[in-house]
Amino acid sequence: MAPYIFKILRFNPKADPMPYFQEYNVELEPSDSVLEGILKIQDEIDPSLAFRYSCRGAVCGSCAVVINGKFNLACRSLVKNVKTEEIVLEPLPNLEIVKDLIVDLQPFWKAYEKIRPYLIPKVIPEKENLVSPKEERAIDNFINCILCACCYGSCPVVTRDEKYLGPAALAKLFRFAGDIRDKGHTDVLDEIDIESGTWGCDTVFKCVDACPKKVRPTDGIEALRRKTVLRKSKRLIGVK
After folding, report:
1. 119-127 contact pairs (CB < 8 A, 24+)
2. Is the dihedral of CA 136, 133, 60, 37 positive or negative?
3. What three-state secondary structure class fits 192?
């Protein structure tokens, strides 16, 4: 066991005038995760500490936070890899704090709903509708998104434009619009052919750096832009 200092941003909008950092001294094994440290604080030191978690297996995205200035999942971040005995935890930016490390994800989910995040098939198959490995590779990276909202929290466009759909929603749109079995997302491409949609991205790749699953939302957004330009060009020359 080794001593660690957890410095956690605390804020209850209903009770606190301003956010503040609170320190906790915790004994942990170096192989313990940051989430295990948070759970120990809640269990043994301060039961009022609020945070989200679920699967503990880095697939649900619930425990996404900022750890020493970097976006990550608390369940997959080992304290020994933080490289310091002081672990600073903050909630995701660009989203209102509900309490402590819990943020209101409603804007994130509203943006996600707008892109119709499901396959709209060209035909209803009688059995499996298979794709080739090459066709699958074109969208494979975007399938890995677990909707943790790290990219949304890191996006400078979301910071200045609350109407912007954000990296996760747009990357998920390419996951479906880029699927050869899909026919229904061409309308969505037209709907988001606006500054707060396809054309809002600054292409500074902060979302790529923030993603704990190595998804590259910027690549998906660029692919959507190419699709949009191609569709417009075809319309100009009368090609369906």
Report:
1. 119/176, 119/179, 119/181, 119/182, 120/176, 120/182, 120/183, 120/184, 120/185, 121/181, 121/182, 121/183, 122/181, 122/182, 122/183
2. negative
3. coil
Range of 69's domain? 2-103
pLDDT digits (tens, 9 = 90+) for 122-142: 777 788 888 889 999 989 999
Among candidate residues 65, 83, 103, the one where a domain is terminated: 103
- 205 and 192, same domain (yes or no): yes
Phi, psi of 66 (to 5 degrees): -100, 120
What is the per-residue pLDDT across 194-220, written as a single tens digit (0 to 9) for each? 999 999 999 999 999 999 999 999 999
| Range scoring the smallest mean pLDDT among 57-66, 117-126, 200-209 | 117-126
Confidence of residue 240 (pLDDT cuts 50, 70, 90): low
For residues 128 and 98, membership in a common domain is answered with no
**Encoded tokens for 51:** 């945070």
Label residues 160-194 b or e (16+ Cβ within 10 Å = b): eeeebbbbbbbbbbbbbbbbeebeebeebbeebbe
Q: How far is residue 210's CA from residue 31's CA, in Å, rounded to a whole number?
A: 23
Q: Same structural domain for residues 112 and 227?
A: yes
The total number of structural domains in the chain stands at: 2
Q: What is the DSSP letter of 182?
A: B
Chain-centre distance for alpha carbon 191: 22
Q: Which of 81, 103, 125 is where one domain is finished?
A: 103
